[in-house]
Amino acid sequence: MVFEIDFNSDEAIYIQLHNQIIMGIATEEYTQGQSLPSVRQMAEVLGVNMHTVNKTYGILRDEGFLKVDRRSGAVVWVESDSKAKELEEMKERLYPIVTKCICKGISKEEICQLIDGIYSEIG
């Protein structure tokens, strides 16, 4: 996967990288057990600070997408916690999005169509 960082974006660099790695996992470009570039390598390729990459890898580890250790580096390791826990976390994240949609007159059906379209695009 080629990572693209938009240095002019309002979105933080670590968030851009975070989202692109998750997209790579979702589209199976990165698979369970596959190593990602080292922090140093990734920072060099992207032209960003090593601390930015380190922060991204740490967040992905905390979210259950990577295992990180000194010897093997960052390895894709998606932990499948309980589905109920994941759904509750998604509900918390989606709540403000859905309320914004309601305020803007976007229907439930339109939201569902949008989600279906995203699922289709990903895989």
Helix content: 55-70%
Question: What's the architecture of the largest domain, going by CATH?
Answer: Orthogonal Bundle
Q: In terms of per-residue confidence, which ranges show pLDDT below 50 for 5 or more consecutive residues?
A: none
Question: What is the N-to-C succession of helices and strands?
Answer: HHHEEHH
Q: End-to-end distance, in Å?
A: 16 Å
- Count of distinct strands: 2
Widest sheet: strand order? 1-2
Could you state the oligomeric state of the chains shown? Answer: single chain
CATH class of the largest domain: Mainly Alpha
Number of helices: 5
Q: Please identify which CATH superfamily of the largest domain we are dealing with.
A: Winged helix-like DNA-binding domain superfamily/Winged helix DNA-binding domain
Query: What's the CATH topology name of the largest domain?
Result: Arc Repressor Mutant, subunit A
What does this structure look like?
With 123 residues, the protein is mostly helical. The protein has two domains: 13-76, Orthogonal Bundle (Arc Repressor Mutant, subunit A); 83-122, no CATH class. It contains five helices and two strands; from the N terminus they run αααββαα. It has a two-stranded antiparallel ribbon with strand order 1-2. Helix 1 (13-26) crosses helix 3 and helix 2 (39-46) packs across helix 3 (50-62). The longest helix has 21 residues, at 83-103.
